[in-house]
Amino acid sequence: MAEKLTEEERQALLPPLGEAGWGADPETDSIRKIWKFRNFSEAWAFMNRAALLAEKRNHHPDWRNVFNVVDVRLTTHDCGGLSKLDTDMAVVLDKYAGSAEVQRDQAQEIVCLCETYHKK
């Protein structure tokens, strides 16, 4: 069973993830990132790779997908908070996302490309 990150581990692991666009949510003891891909196919390809990783590691993200946007939240339910499983998965997901745009302001409304096209 995974164990929650210690304070020392959090101080070492979370700042670099924050610089990469991962936001910490103290209320749910999770990290979250929102990617905007160029189109639905790129978002779907990312999710496929992430799903295979999740199955291999038996560690599954909470996520939401709307057209070209993928919103991922990582936490370890077994231990009730952030674990090394989450931070390790975040690093790999960043590699899978490639040059996708990152929505750093997580309080901002998520707007996908289909909504952008519709407004024109």
TrEMBL record:
Region annotation Disordered: where it falls in the sequence: 1-25
Annotated keywords: Lyase
Gene3D superfamilies: Transcriptional coactivator/pterin dehydratase (3.30.1360.20)
Superkingdom of origin organism: Bacteria
Compositionally biased spans, kind Basic and acidic residues: 1-11
Enzyme class: lyase
GO molecular function, one term: 4-alpha-hydroxytetrahydrobiopterin dehydratase activity
Enzyme Commission designation: 4.2.1.96
Pfam families hit by this protein: Pterin_4a
HAMAP family xref list: Pterin_4_alpha
Family per record: Belongs to the pterin-4-alpha-carbinolamine dehydratase family.
PANTHER family listed in its UniProt record: PTERIN-4-ALPHA-CARBINOLAMINE DEHYDRATASE
Protein name: Putative pterin-4-alpha-carbinolamine dehydratase
Species per Swiss-Prot/TrEMBL record: Rubellimicrobium mesophilum DSM 19309
